[in-house]
Amino acid sequence: MARVTVFTLGGTISARGGDAARMTGQEVLAELGAPEDVVLRDFRRVPSSSVTHEDLAALAEEVRKTVADGSGVVVVQGTDTLEETAFLLDLLCTTEQPIAVTGAMRRPDLPGADGPANLAAALAVAADPACRGLGVLVVLADEIHAARHARKTHTTSVATFASPGAGPIGTVVEGEPRILLRPAVPAALCPLRFDPSVRVALVTLSQGDRGELLEAVDDRFQGLVVAAFGAGHAPAWLVDPLADIARRIPVVLASRTGGGTTLSHTYRGPGSEYDLLHHGLIPAGPLDPAKARVLLHTLLSSGAAGPAGYDRPRITAAFAHLNGTGLA
Ligand code: ASP
Q1: DSSP characters for 12-44?
Q2: What is the pLDDT along the chain (328 residues), one digit of tens a residue?
Q3: Ligand 1 atom 3, closest CA
């Protein structure tokens, strides 16, 4: 079995008693009775809502070095923002080594705590050569999900992680990973960078929206993701404000529905996806708003914007790549 390094960041898996103090990485591994050859990196001890961009940049750097040394990796963190960490690592660590991200929904002191089982499954994935070359994987409830699809879909269920529109790519059965499907393309064709100082706004539209939050998207931000209605729709009166912002910074059009891809030409009236794209917005395709924000952040950190403006074709191609409609 390959060597595995475990990075612990905190989260429910370490929240015995539910107060602010979190268990050490050593204690988290001890709950499982983890094998002694596992290398522990007690990285942070925070709820995942408090993981910062600086934490993520440092984590990605450490994970990159670790996989370059030939180790598989497990990242253990809270489930609330797990999908964003996993997708970011997928974009930053283009490696054949398995990287599994896991956590828990039930505290270690509650009946039916799922942390030990999830950690055991993630360790099995990270050590298994059959899990190489799949990109970063989210492993919970004996399911293996590709990071680009995985989402937390329920506030309390231990089966909260799902891949809407795709499904899990494998399962863990009797302690062994079984891969059923492989992602069609790597998440990124070359490793992207992540600059914590880049700011990307995420604005979710709501019925009757008058655009006050869009007005707040000023020069503090280098990019904007709009979580729009349905397949990429906005009120007709927000088209001009969105087009104005898209002249300054990239504006990515995502869907707030939680599944499916944005469309391009099914509806053509004011505020339709066709209208918005022809006013300069960039389609997120199948990426949900949170993941679209992560991808846009990495592109802006990797030279897709500068004093002369932003590289719209490059950003559009990167999103299209994950839609299976083009190569970045
Ligand atoms: N689910 C939370 C998290 O994502 C729980 C916590 O506060 O630890 O970290």
Answers
A1: GGG-GGGSS----HHHHHHHHT--TTPEEEEEE
A2: 569 999 999 999 999 988 888 999 999 999 888 777 899 999 999 999 999 999 999 999 999 999 999 999 999 999 999 999 999 999 999 999 999 999 999 999 999 999 999 999 999 999 999 999 999 999 999 999 999 999 999 999 999 999 998 999 999 999 999 999 999 998 988 889 999 999 999 999 999 999 999 999 999 999 999 999 999 999 999 999 999 999 999 999 999 999 999 999 999 999 999 999 999 999 999 999 999 999 999 999 999 988 889 999 999 999 999 886 544 3
A3: 78
Q: Domain 4-179 belongs to what topology? A: Rossmann fold (3.40.50)
Say what the pTM is.
0.96
For ligand 1, say whether the CB of 311 is within 6 Å of any of its atoms.
no
Ligand 1 binding pocket includes 71 (Cβ within 6 Å): no
Given the residues 12, 66, 95, 262, select the one marked as catalytic.
12
Range(s) of the chain covered by CATH 3.40.50.1170: 4-179
Ligand 1 site, residue 76, Cβ cutoff 6 A: no
Which residue ranges does the chain devote to CATH 3.40.50.40?
200-320
CB atoms within 10 A of CB 112: 8
User: Is 24 among the catalytic positions?
Assistant: no
Looking at the domain 200-320, which fold is it? Rossmann fold (3.40.50)
Burial annotation 16-44 (CB, 10 A radius, 16+ → b, else e)? beeeeebbebeebbebbebeeebeebbbb
